[in-house]
Amino acid sequence: MYASFKSIGAYIPKEIRTNQWFVDRMDTSDEWITKRTGISERRIASENENTSDLGYEASKIAIKRAQINVEDIDLIICATISPDYLCMPSTACLIAEKLGIRNIMALDISAACTGFVYALQTAQAFIQSGMKKNVLIIGAEKLSSIVDYSDRTTCMLFGDGAGAAIISATEDKSEAIVDIQCSADGSLQDLLLTPGITSAEPSFMQMKGNETFKIAVRTLTSDVQKIMEKNNFKNEDIDLFIPHQANYRIIKAVGDALKFEDEQKVVTVAKYGNTSSASIPMAINDVYESGRLKSGDMMLLDAFGGGLTWGSALLPFSGK
Ligand code: ACO
Fold first, then answer.
1. What is the CATH number of domain 1-320?
2. pLDDT tens for residues 215-261?
3. Which of 96, 98, 244, 247 has the smallest number of Cβ neighbours within 10 A?
4. Nearest-atom index, ligand 1, CA of 37
5. In what order do the strands lie in the sheet with 105-109?
């Protein structure tokens, strides 16, 4: 049995927060943010929208597009670093309840911006082992709830949103996920972390941006080189290169080092900012809805985030 990527969906919160919002509140400029990050605006969830609500909306679309019923889903995995509740219940449980699904396994994954790729590999393992048939994977983030808006060096980077996908069992090898590789290195844990865990000490994200930037460029590049070499893939075998959307300069540096053409690169960071685990599925949804992603197209995913964690995936899009 193989695992195939059957559908994609996303939820884009309505409120647009432009760079001017930050200019009005702190010592920064639209020029600095645009030049250093490539970000012009990001989406912000409303006060009464939680991460599970964003994930639920994205899931409904992915389920519909996969042409399955909620009863067909036998596992839910939600990647998030901004869960509704810090410890329990998991955001996956809350999404399951909103979807009206009970009595199946539902769990969260914490792998920061690599979360969606981690969820994808976990789904693949459950399917290839024969244990599950239709897995709902979600990357959902309300990062505005953990961003420190007094820290001008990080707060302008992040936005809210969610993406979801259905990964299904198939006997058709042409639809199969080709390869996924996920890694972690806890020795670099202090580069990106949310240290506070009490109500007296809110859980705000901290990042050593400049150091993280350099490691991100190196790791994202070498990770792609490894997965491409291992599977004997050449650049022309890739239809869409969909990297984590952290900073346009990172995407450009990695894309240039790997010599991908502009038509192959997917870039959404200007309008959504960094949405951590939601960034890759939101980008896949963007190209799907614009007609750029078609059935059978080969996707190359490449992610990097806190942990540190990183991962890449080679897979055809098997949706309609
Ligand atoms: N406005 C104006 N000036 C600023 C701002 C701001 N918002 N923020 C920082 N500066 C200043 C700094 O104080 C510094 O001034 P100095 O030279 O007088 O000391 C100067 O700008 C340069 O700062 P750097 O930190 O060196 O800027 P850099 O070019 O590295 O850009 C950024 C910062 C955008 C954060 C970048 O480092 C980055 O994108 N890092 C990586 C992000 C990433 O990939 N994270 C991993 C995934 S996220 C996750 O897992 C949740």
1. 3.40.47.10
2. 999 999 999 999 999 999 999 999 999 999 999 999 999 999 999 99
3. 98
4. 34
5. 2-11, 160-170, 134-142, 75-79, 105-109
What's the rounded Cα separation, in Å, for the pair 285 and 290? Answer: 8
Distance 145 CA to ligand 1 centre (A): 20
Q: Where are the domains of the chain?
A: 1-320
Q: Reply yes or no on whether the pLDDT at 87 is more than 90.
A: no
**Cβ burial, residue 320 (10 Å; 0-12/13-18/19+):** exposed
CA atoms within 13 A on the CB side of 180: 23
Pairing of strands 160-170, 2-11: antiparallel
C-alpha 61/C-alpha 48 separation (Å) is 21
**Per the omega criterion (within 30 degrees of 0), is the bond before 300 cis?**
no
Q: Which residues are catalytic?
A: 113, 244, 274
- The C-alpha atoms of residue 144 and residue 205 are separated, in whole angstroms, by 10
Q: For residue 124, how far is the Cα from the chain centroid?
A: 17
Q: How far apart are CA 89 and CA 107, in angstroms?
A: 9
Question: How far is residue 157's CA from residue 34's CA, in Å, rounded to a whole number?
Answer: 10
Average confidence score pLDDT of the chain: 96
Question: Ligand 1 pocket, 274 CB below 6 A?
Answer: yes
Phi, psi of 3 (to 5 degrees): -105, 135
Cα–Cα distance between 267 and 251 in angstroms, integer? 8
Structure confidence at residue 196 as a pLDDT band (50, 70, 90): confident
